[in-house]
Every structure is written in structure tokens, then in C-alpha cells.
Amino acid sequence: MSLNHMENMPLSHSSPQGAQRTSWKQWVLYSTIIILLLLCSFGTLILTFLPLKTANETCVAKFGPLPSKWQMTSPEPPCVNEIADWQLRILQNGLYLIYGQVDPNTAYEGAAPFEVRLYKNEDIIQTLTSNSEIQNVGGTYELHAGDTINLKFNSEHQVLKNNTYWGILLLANPQFIS
């Protein structure tokens, strides 16, 4: 008896010739794509029904460079209130852009290390420690009525106040549909 005829026999049952079976890798890929599309659609629906309403009127406050006082362009009712130099109280909930520039005094030789801090209430939200170059301060923050924002220096003589300023701009008010 010869075993030659066994050499050409397949070891397992296969699909008909020309038909391809999808592998588990393709199934995972297609499933992932479908899930991502569903998540994107869901996110679009959320943004459609819970939009951020841009501020109707410009609300801006800027302090500095010295000699200066707060310069405000504010609608009625105002969005911010001056508490002191370098400090504001937020009066309207919203998305705010805080911006500014800090110019270090490179001639300062006091004992205190250079440090400029941006505070929201009692929490530090940004710290600048490089005294070798002009630095930008700020970012986009969600703020609520009653929050206080201020810029503090480790020592008043560490910055050149004639070239240091900061300000705030109301970008949008959240409007939720009930």
C-alpha cells in the first residue's frame, strides 16, 4: 500500500477554494471603528444639545503696566469686580481666558527666590520661576461667581512693573437646557 495519495490531502477541513474567512484581528478592527464612530456621534449630540453660548458683550479687565489701574470693558451686569491691584472677583460663571506678561527684574539681588504665582481663590494655578526672560502667564479656565483671581510676586521688587501686566476675558457662558 502506497502513501503517495496521502501527501496531497489537506490536514483540516477548509473553506471552499476562493472563499476567505475573516480573522479575529479584522473583527476587532471593525468593531473598534464602529465603537469610535458611535462615540463621536454621541459627543456631537452632547455638544449640540448642551452648547456653550459665547458672551453677548465683551467683558475684559486688564491691570498694568504701571503706573496703571484696572481698565475694564464690561457689560451690564459686569463679569468681574476689582478687589485690589493685581486681584479680581469673578461675578459671572463662564469660560475665561487669563493672559499676561511678567518681566523679571534681572538686577534684583534680594534673598527671596524669584516666583510669580497666579491664584484662583487660595489655589495656585500657575507658577513662574525663571527670572532670565519675559514670561507669559495665563490660560483658559472655567470660573464661577465668587472666585477670586490674583497675581502675586514673592517680592515686589522682583518684577519690572512698567512692563508687567495681566488681564481676563470672558469667552463663553455655559447654557444648559433643562
UniProtKB/TrEMBL annotation:
Residues 48-171 form the THD domain. It is found in: Cell membrane. The chain crosses the membrane at residues 27-50. Keywords: Adaptive immunity, Cell membrane, Cytokine, Disulfide bond, Glycoprotein, Immunity, Membrane, Signal-anchor, Transmembrane, Transmembrane helix. PROSITE patterns: THD_2 (PS50049). GO terms for biological process: adaptive immune response; positive regulation of cell adhesion; positive regulation of leukocyte migration; regulation of macromolecule metabolic process; regulation of primary metabolic process; regulation of T cell proliferation; T cell proliferation involved in immune response; tumor necrosis factor-mediated signaling pathway. It is a single-pass type II membrane protein. InterPro entries: TNF_dom, TNFSF18, Tumour_necrosis_fac-like_dom. Its main location: membrane. One of its GO terms (cellular component) is cell surface. Signal peptide: none annotated. GO terms for molecular function: cytokine activity; identical protein binding; tumor necrosis factor receptor binding. The keyword Ribonucleoprotein does not apply. Belongs to the tumor necrosis factor family. Cytokine that binds to TNFRSF18/AITR/GITR. Regulates T-cell responses. Can function as costimulator and lower the threshold for T-cell activation and T-cell proliferation. Important for interactions between activated T-lymphocytes and endothelial cells. Mediates activation of NF-kappa-B. Triggers increased phosphorylation of STAT1 and up-regulates expression of VCAM1 and ICAM1. Promotes leukocyte adhesion to endothelial cells. Regulates migration of monocytes from the splenic reservoir to sites of inflammation. This is Tumor necrosis factor ligand superfamily member 18. It comes from Equus asinus asinus.
